[in-house]
């Protein structure tokens, strides 16, 4: 990796995003609109005894989930465009390293994810009165790491798609199982053993657990840091796998 | 004269079909060498092999004394793909500056490369809003910005107006005079006359490797289009 090239690549991707104002607006606004929906769905539901209100429980997980799904989609399409327009092939004839490109995407869209989750967190805490025992900044941190994971998975999956139609099909394949099994719908310890095993293998489960730790404890817990480290590790592993799918030579 | 590119017995298969049938040729340093042939003759595949992005079946391609695709060649070779490969959602200047950094150059070189292809007045326009010809010149600026020793250009003048086309060819010759080697493909025969040397290729086989004057002399015609036709007929006569 080369610092100047990595910085230029990150800047280039952010500049592309900046020229696309509508995408930026959608990135920032859509999660807050969805949170509004979630708020009115649960506003009249009685809180379970002893636990957080249903809105607090669901909204907290949603704050981590929105950047995950959106950054996965954005990255898959962005990387596919690099392939189909020939810019990827051209980049690979220059001194740019594969990891310069992949980490450039990770950093650029990771920052976009942090911006997005900061805005939706402000809305959740200030407008809808979300309450967590721990700091809102930890929520933003976890959401940011989650965004980087989504970027890494998107970069990896885009290698297996030739068209946009195929690329968007990876969204339900990669994202839906993780959402179903992350503990939002059924607590993980109440699932059948084999489902728990699958859930244990999916990185989003750890992001959700980390968020729940922030919800329940005033200070960051060891479990939370371990979970954040697992999500970050999964992101780096996916980036390295994605690098293996980039070939300087092709047929 | 030593060769910037030397190709020996190059065989390439794409999609289960043989595209290059054992081509051997050279590109002398400091010249503009034209790679001419009809669409589908294997020009792009040969260029991709020279740049080192093509998987080859057998044979060898040496570029500037190193095997094609070697890591240290990435600073020394500039490649223009046939379809303009620049970012449509960036301005011309932003594209040039990005590719300049990749080649270890700065903003001044980027701005000069943009001016050199005649896009100074459109530098702050998004590439997506440019005409086809302007877009391909933006792509050309990004290929030239690193001042590479070898420049491989796949149909750089398609869609350009005649005045600009003449300007671009003048630029190519000025670069060659400064020691740069250029390999330029085209399917338009009137561009062949502008080259120092010609590689004529058809159906993955080399038909001629000579100067335009020698091709004219050998075929007894001043018209290079006609000369190409005669060369093909001669080659087919021999194989029959």
Automatic annotation (TrEMBL), chain A:
The keyword Cell membrane applies. It is a multi-pass membrane protein. The chain crosses the membrane at residues 24-43, 58-80, 101-125, 137-161, 168-186, 228-246. GO terms for molecular function: ABC-type transporter activity. GO terms for cellular component: ATP-binding cassette (ABC) transporter complex. InterPro entries: ABC-2_transporter_component (IPR051449), ABC2_TM (IPR013525), ABC2_TM_bact-type (IPR047817), ABC_2_transport (IPR000412), ABC_transpt_DrrB/DrrC (IPR004377). Residues 22-249 form the ABC transmembrane type-2 domain. GO terms for biological process: daunorubicin transport; doxorubicin transport; response to antibiotic. Belongs to the ABC-2 integral membrane protein family. This is Transport permease protein.
Automatic annotation (TrEMBL), chain B:
InterPro entries: AAA+_ATPase (IPR003593), ABC_transporter-like_ATP-bd (IPR003439), ABC_transporter-like_CS (IPR017871), P-loop_NTPase (IPR027417). GO terms for molecular function: ATP binding; ATP hydrolysis activity. The keyword ATP-binding applies. Keywords: ATP-binding, Nucleotide-binding. The keyword ATP-binding applies. Residues 5-228 form the ABC transporter domain. PANTHER family: ABC TRANSPORTER G FAMILY MEMBER 20 ISOFORM X1, ATP-BINDING CASSETTE, SUB-FAMILY H, MEMBER 1. This is ABC-2 type transport system ATP-binding protein.
């Amino acid at each position: 990796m080369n610092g100047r090239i990595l910085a230029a690549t990150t800047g280039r991707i952010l500049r592309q995003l900046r020229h696309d104002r509508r995408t930026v607006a959608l990135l920032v606004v859509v999660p807050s609109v969805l949170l509004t929906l979630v708020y009115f769905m649960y506003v009249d539901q009685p809180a379970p005894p002893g636990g957080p209100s249903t809105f607090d429980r669901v909204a907290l997980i949603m704050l981590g989930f929105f950047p995950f799904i959106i950054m996965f989609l954005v990255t898959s399409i962005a990387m596919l465009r690099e392939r189909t327009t020939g810019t990827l092939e051209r980049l690979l004839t220059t001194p740019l390293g594969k990891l310069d490109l992949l980490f450039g995407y990770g950093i650029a869209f990771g920052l976009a994810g942090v911006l997005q989750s900061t805005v939706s967190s402000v809305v959740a805490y200030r407008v809808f009165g979300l309450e967590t025992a721990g700091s809102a900044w930890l929520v933003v941190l976890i959401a940011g790491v989650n965004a980087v994971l989504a970027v890494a998975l998107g970069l990896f999956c885009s290698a297996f798609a030739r068209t946009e139609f195929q690329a968007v099909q990876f969204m339900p394949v990669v994202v839906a199982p993780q959402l179903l099994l992350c503990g939002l719908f059924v607590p993980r310890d109440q699932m059948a053993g084999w489902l728990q095993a699958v859930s244990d293998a999916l990185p989003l489960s750890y992001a959700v657990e980390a968020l729940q730790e922030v919800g329940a404890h005033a200070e960051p817990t060891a479990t939370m840091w371990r979970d954040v480290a697992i999500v970050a590790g999964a992101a780096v592993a996916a980036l390295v796998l994605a690098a293996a799918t980039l070939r300087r030579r092709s047929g | 004269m030593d060769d910037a590119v030397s190709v020996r017995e190059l065989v390439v298969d794409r999609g289960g079909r043989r595209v290059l049938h054992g081509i051997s040729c050279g590109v002398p340093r400091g010249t503009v060498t034209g790679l001419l042939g009809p669409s589908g003759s294997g020009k792009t595949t040969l260029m991709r092999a020279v740049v080192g992005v093509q998987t080859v079946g057998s044979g060898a391609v040496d570029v500037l004394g190193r095997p094609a695709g070697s890591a240290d060649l990435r600073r020394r070779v500039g490649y223009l793909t046939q379809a303009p490969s620049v970012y449509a959602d960036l301005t011309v200047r932003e594209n040039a500056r990005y590719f300049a950094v990749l080649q270890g150059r700065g903003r001044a070189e980027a701005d000069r490369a943009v001016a050199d292809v005649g896009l100074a007045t459109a530098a702050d326009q998004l590439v997506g809003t440019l005409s086809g010809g302007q877009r391909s010149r933006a792509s050309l600026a990004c290929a030239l910005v690193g001042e590479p020793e070898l420049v491989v250009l796949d149909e750089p003048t398609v869609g350009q107006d005649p005045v600009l086309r003449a300007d671009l060819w003048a630029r190519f010759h000025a670069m060659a005079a400064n020691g740069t080697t250029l390999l330029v493909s085209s399917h338009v025969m009137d561009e062949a006359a502008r080259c120092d040397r010609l590689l004529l290729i058809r159906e993955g086989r080399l038909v001629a490797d000579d100067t335009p004057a020698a091709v004219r002399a050998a075929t007894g015609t001043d018209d290079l289009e006609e000369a190409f036709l005669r060369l093909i007929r001669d080659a087919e006569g021999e194989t029959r």
